[in-house]
Automatic annotation (TrEMBL):
<feature type="domain" description="HTH gntR-type">
    <location>
        <begin position="6"/>
        <end position="74"/>
    </location>
</feature>
<dbReference type="InterPro" id="IPR000524">
    <property type="entry name" value="Tscrpt_reg_HTH_GntR"/>
</dbReference>
<protein>
    <submittedName>
        <fullName>GntR family transcriptional regulator</fullName>
    </submittedName>
</protein>
<keyword id="KW-0804">Transcription</keyword>
<dbReference type="Pfam" id="PF00392">
    <property type="entry name" value="GntR"/>
</dbReference>
<keyword id="KW-0238">DNA-binding</keyword>
<keyword id="KW-0805">Transcription regulation</keyword>
<dbReference type="InterPro" id="IPR036388">
    <property type="entry name" value="WH-like_DNA-bd_sf"/>
</dbReference>
<dbReference type="InterPro" id="IPR036390">
    <property type="entry name" value="WH_DNA-bd_sf"/>
</dbReference>
Amino acid sequence: MFDDTRPIFLQLAERIADEVLRGIYAEGEQVPSTNELALHLRINPATAGKALALLVEQGVLFKKRGIGMFVAPGARAQIALDRQRVFTERFVEPLLAEARSLGLTTEELIALITTQGGADA
């Protein structure tokens, strides 16, 4: 469920963001409370609260006082844009740098990607 490589609250925040991105939680929909998450995942409520607070800070969730946490308008698009930026930094830029060092043209690189990933990828 959780691994030892990163703090649990970061993994939980990422997991909830994944669920928003995949449409499990729609914009405007309520997400589980701190206590519900803690009970279900068997983690400390402070850890669950820290994950939710991080998502509020990032603008993914918003709090309705006395009611709970809800997915913010535009959260799904924001998560997708943030992930695309990270994907570009971690994978696309190094791929392009390596392709340049190998002397591959853009067309050759596209052909390699198409061959390896299929036409729909």
